[in-house]
Structures
1.
Amino acid sequence: MILAVASGKGGTGKTTVAVGLALSARGGASLLDCDVEEPNCHIFVKPEILRREPVMVPIPKVDKDACNSCGQCSEFCRFHAIVALKTEPLVFPELCHGCGGCAWICPRGAIREIRREIGAVEVGMNGGLRFIQGIMNVGQAMSPPVIRAVKAAALEGNSEHDRVMIVDCPPGTACPMVAAVRGSDAVVLVTEPTPFGLHDLRLAAETVRKLGIPFGVAINRSDCGDGRVEDYCGAEKIPILLRIPERRDMAEGYSRGESILSAAPEYREPLLRLLEETSRMAVENKKP
Amino acid sequence: MKELVVISGKGGTGKTSITASFAALARDAVVADCDVDAADLHLLLSPEIRERREFKCGVEAVIRAADCTSCGKCEKFCRFDAIRKTVEGEEKALFVVDALSCEGCGVCARFCPAGAIDLVERSGGEWFISECRFGPMIHAQLGIGGENSGKLVSIVRDAARELAVKSGRRLVIVDGPPGIGCPVIASVAGADVVLAATEPTLSGEHDVERALSLARRFGAILMVCVNKWDLNPELTGRIEHAARAAGAEVVGRIGYDRTVTEAQIAGKCVVEHSDGPAARDIRTLWENVLRRLD
């Protein structure tokens, strides 16, 4: 089962829940850190990194001798990543989505694609847990290719670690979040019982519904705010899978990079129940 | 006119609470919410929307089933796995575009031999020109799974700056997004001052370092404040030390205070809601920021 841990609002405890789930599952599990702009799972898992591979994206390279400055590439590109003003085209790599269109349409075959590094995927282990994280290079704008590379690395070949795959997703509801959540069998949306938490939970829930993936909610710092998140989940029939009340010792443990299981081992049972419940939801969803 | 942008790297470190309080303390500034895919500032500032504008975020491909010859070329050409075959077996294969995956590059439409693919303009959300109790506010709501959030951020910032110039206001305060990707780049490029709010956790330390190294590339004055600093005083010191070494000025610490959440539930800024430790710390923080702005 692939279980995505997502949220609308940042800082609600996605990483805490994702790491807790991966460590609770013990053998046969993988943890994928797809929050590639700010990957934090490694702080809590402390894996031994076994390999690192660059994430490359294609960008156009113009052969100046073959180019006759017809401008068709520039006209075609909707992202203004290749611009020709009656001159040989200029390429703006950060804007390029890598669709390949300019290279295909160039009537003189003057454009070929070269590969540009935008980040890396690291694969490691800690105990029985397989760990895979994506790291986007600072200054790069587009994280989805790095996110897709993390997932591809996890699904590569047959692994004994694919019984449970936990995916820590980036916050928000924009394309990086969709890229991370897509393809999972179930989703846990982590929120907090505050107006910000509720507002962003609604957006995240709508996004996951649109993707057609079953989901439930985990409420972190469940006693810090008001009852409106619980009311919303009740009205929308969204199952609440986990509640984690606020505790100073857990917050301090988090600040030092300790997983929820070291600060509060009693959460192993509720986390395992969450895994069972979401895997039941995933099976249910796949029935015709 | 000066522009102050609040970012964080890690989410949930208090950007929006700080920005809202700054709006209250600054009085006559233009406020902009550039965290467009999880916009929350309006929950504290309750703006009255004066104008709504549609955000057009490019195109998406739509296949006209009647004209499709099922050749499958579009599926092969698409680099974003946005085109799927939906019927297997003897029936005519049907190809459909998954709108959430389509990046709107137009390759499929260009290469479809039957000319069966249209590129239709898509709405990527809305943005608003509003008035809140502290002055004008520009904010937005990105559509679900929206593309091009950086472009929407640029629209919001441009509108806020334009409004400030037109109305003779001297300051624009921007609530930025978390992370370091395109919406963050669009938020900090060309800003005068970037304030990074973080928390004394290893995650907060790791993330603010990346956010600062991004912001530094754009030549803004860099500032850092540590929220909930008393959660781990030792780490707070370490973060502040690293921030100074990275060329940022440490402009304040905010103590952990439950009234921050209470204020949010009441729909108010921290400095309006109470005069507790966090409110006092934010006032001091604002004075320090203001000194550098002048």
2.
Amino acid sequence: MSPLLRVEGVTLQYKTSDHIVTATWRVSFNVLQSDRFVILGPSGCGKSTILKAVGGYISPVEGSIFLSGTKVAAPGPDRVFVFQEFDQLLPWKTVKENITFALTSSGKLARREAGERAMHFIGKVKLTEFANSYPHTLSGGMKQRVAIARGMAMEPRILLMDEPFAALDALTRARMQEELLQLWVDTKFTVLFVTHSIPEAIRVGSRILLLSAHPGQVKAEIDSHGADGRETSEARIESMLFDHA
Amino acid sequence: MPESHGADRPELTYAVVTTGFDVVEKPLSAWEKFYNNGAARKVLLLAVLALLWEFYARWLNNPLLFPTFSETVKALFTSIASGEIPRAASYSIGMLLKGYVAGLLLAGVLTAFASAGRIGADLLETLTAMFNPLPSIALLPLALIWFGLGDGSVIFVLIHAVLWSVALNMHAGFRAVSPTLKMVGQNYGLSKPGYVIRILLPAAFPSILTGLKVGWAFAWRTLIAAELVFGVSSGSGGLGWYIFEQKNQLLIPNVFAGLLTVILFGLVVENLIFKTIENVTVRRWGMQT
């Protein structure tokens, strides 16, 4: 099976007011169809920067990124982002309008079908009764659910999630991880998921990419469930990330 | 050895009831409802002020200096019935709209420049710093030389009154749009104009609205002042001119009526037009509380 997403030797840099900072150094990995691919690393390892590069917001200074064989050059609706921030919904549109607007303005669907599909995915994230509410009336977890529903309704080739649950309380976060897995069982979408939480990586991911910090380099790429079906232990990942040898 | 802490403290569980609360929801009393209504509170205040005015003017008993509230209202109604104030007001409003719209368009162009690059932003900031503190009325003598005694010079002055505050607020609004929202907008694959109109404009709307409000207030003040200074062109004058003329004939209640009209129009624009826009946009969207 040829990979859906190929990241080949990607070096990413960004400028601050007085420095050029190398965020990642020659990072390579492949994401297959229906992978739940997690990028895990300490803060400062450039994992969000990688995700933005896949999204097309940043271009690599070295290496390249291919999605289904096509080079990624600009943001587009075939890679939909779910951000950490709660302000990623358009505040001037209701929950339903947020999703239909995404569908119609990306040219995926006409208004009518867009409305139907929006309601379908709003139902999937259990927000049917809030379809006509404005985002500011929702809780943080509900906003993230809408963002996920929007991402899934767009049916992108790959869903890019940038620590989508990081700003949630622990209980809500655990429930959202559960729901995300349930949604994946239903539709088998491909997702590239960035997190700095080892337990979250093990729970959500099927494959985990471990990055080191300053600049980010690949340390390992492992399965979250071993050949025996048992979960990889947090201790193992911790020792791989922070080996003191 | 650590003691087995809390061994004598049993775990507790309680049943949660769903009925039998004293008050879950109770309507407020009529007075509380009235007191919570901003418009009602303001009307009450206005009534008190009008009453104070009436009593003070009666006590002063000098209609030439300070007519009573009732005389002013009477003068207002007669002037409205005679068509003088409506004529003057519609002339003023027409001028205001022309100047306001022209100012907004120019502000849009300037903001577009400012958003396009650093030089444009520098230009906007420098021009605004220079001209915003300059009272528009101070340009009127110059405008009269350039554009002659007529609509042109008033509109020029109005544009100056509107342009800078609106452009400044628009620019600030665009700059304050959250990076996340911008990335979301780019994610949708919108065209460049679509992105500006459907993402950036609404996202910056709270600031733009502030700019529109400030700009309108500047324009209205400037217009009345400009009409007072020279007012008449081609036989028709605005409210400022009306006030000036009535003063010359020592019809002081009419002067007050003219001033009252200026104030009333201001209240209507502020409390009806802008409030309505606010309620159906930024308040409903939760972008302003």
